[in-house]
């Protein structure tokens, strides 16, 4: 059957036909490095890493080029830098924030089992770059020359009405987009939907020289420039979260197509669904905002990765502790069997599942079936293709068991304190202690003594 992908552009599941089978090209929008990436950001990282691995498996490792950018110029970065380093000049403060955040991002992504992309460019490297045929300044100049952009009061804006099929990706009319978007009202705009390609910098902010005055690029033009420079005017796959369809990806398409005079930017557009935490939208105001780094303090990357893949990438996902616990139990069973494999072997059932629009729930069902048959080689190969390291998971498990063993006295003391709290009917304290114990990787089991009727609590290391 071959690889089939659900294409946001066509709204159908399409057969994948490469522009050049010897050079499959994929671009995925990366982080804006003003804060540590949250657990919702982990989803596209993992989803498109699975696709990257599948493409390498199907076409050969050297025949796939994957670009995931770093946005290092943005209003949020400026604000965070001023807040965290008020004693430093803003440029220095920005460098501190972006370096720290990008370093943590790379560590977190590696812990999730993601391969390094072929290229991971920083946006600031492509504002003005002599060797890049599509740096941001040149793209903006081309758009002005073609009548798709105009300069006004130190800004350059894309003229949305100049593109007849603008809105094709999000399938919205201009009226619908105006109604549904947060449109910046500005007297220098010709149309409310026109968006910024270049804007003047405020005093103290980073600024680059340009024909339109010192300033910095708009967000959308950054990805157009990096994708064009590293992948060409038209490439195979563009990916990202569903929240990026409009306006970011719509505007990317507009800029790139109008600047280059091409019919498409990417042939296939893939978007992953939203993530909720325990049934609620993640937000700092609800107190359920959690970073990848925080999750990795309690769970290994392999458990996080499997939990993400249990839901099809296009569907919304509910991020729960229960799902993490289930993933850990599954991996404990699977990796024990896979350890017996002499040589990993990717079974056809797993490949076919992933070729069907990355159907990871079906692939995971196959993993359970392989474990039931004790098919060690196939199980090992399937885990490898999904980017799950059996060796790293087993190492984490052994390390935790050792740590719990060494602190058995502390655990026993916590268990006794919880029993005492329950007897005193201080259930809030008992629940707090239970959470502290379970965070150590311990399972508590409460039962009544059949003779005395008293509550007896036993515990074991979670496996």
Specify Rg, calculated over alpha carbons.
Answer: 26 Å
Biggest pleated sheet: 4 strands, parallel
In terms of DSSP E residues, the strand content is 15-25%
Mean pLDDT: 92
Secondary structure layout:
Blueprint: E1 4-7, E2 12-15, E3 24-28, H1 39-59, E4 64-68, H2 75-84, H3 90-111, H4 136-145, E5 149-152, E6 155-158, H5 174-180, E7 195-200, E8 215-217, H6 219-231, E9 235-241, H7 245-260, E10 266-272, E11 275-277, E12 280-281, H8 292-298, H9 301-309, E13 317-319, H10 321-338, H11 348-355, H12 360-372, H13 376-385, H14 390-406, H15 408-423, H16 427-439, E14 442-448, E15 455-461
Helix pairs in contact: 2-3, 4-7, 6-7, 9-10, 10-13, 10-14, 11-12, 12-13, 15-16
Can you walk me through this structure?
A hairpin with a 4-residue loop joins strand 1 and strand 2. The radius of gyration is 26 Å and the shape is globular. It is an alpha/beta fold. It has 16 helices and 15 strands. The longest helix is centred in the N-terminal third of the chain and has 22 residues. A four-stranded parallel sheet has the order 4-3-9-10, with helices on both faces. The two termini are 39 Å apart. Helix 6 packs across helix 7 and helix 11 runs antiparallel to helix 12. It is 45% helix and 15% strand.
Features:
463 residues, alpha/beta, four-stranded parallel beta sheet, four-stranded antiparallel beta sheet, 16 helices, 15 strands, 45% helix, 15% strand, globular
